[in-house]
Amino acid sequence: MRLCAWYLYGEKHRGYALNPVANFHLQNGSVLWRINWMGDTSPRGIGASCGMMVNYRYFLEETASNSALYLGSKQVQASEQVLALVSQFQQHSKL
């Protein structure tokens, strides 16, 4: 889960999220909200994402500012759960 959080939050291509689905939602002003262990146990879900599923949350009053922040400053808005996983990844990673 830590690696998944880092991949979605920290891995970038030209400053934007490497994952195309994450990039789509973040451009549209969402918050990287929750990572769900075994959220997709279908054969495709297991093969594509080890069963993990991600939720993006849209707070309507914040979508415009989140989008502008992401597109202008390349800053990802994320929940405390995701940020905690990112922090754990950074502490334990040898990258």
TrEMBL record:
Q: What is this protein called?
A: DCMC protein
* GO BP annotations listed: acetyl-CoA biosynthetic process; fatty acid biosynthetic process; malonyl-CoA catabolic process
Cellular-component GO terms for this entry: mitochondrial matrix; peroxisomal matrix
Question: By its UniProt entry, which Gene3D superfamilies does this protein fall under?
Answer: Malonyl-CoA decarboxylase, catalytic domain (3.40.630.150)
InterPro entries, from UniProt? Malonyl_CoA_deC, Malonyl_CoA_deC_C, Malonyl_CoA_deC_C_sf
Protein's organism? Myiagra hebetior
Any Pfam family from its record, for instance, is MCD
Q: Which domain of life is it from?
A: Eukaryota
- Where's the Malonyl-CoA decarboxylase C-terminal domain? 1-58
Q: Name one GO molecular function term.
A: malonyl-CoA decarboxylase activity
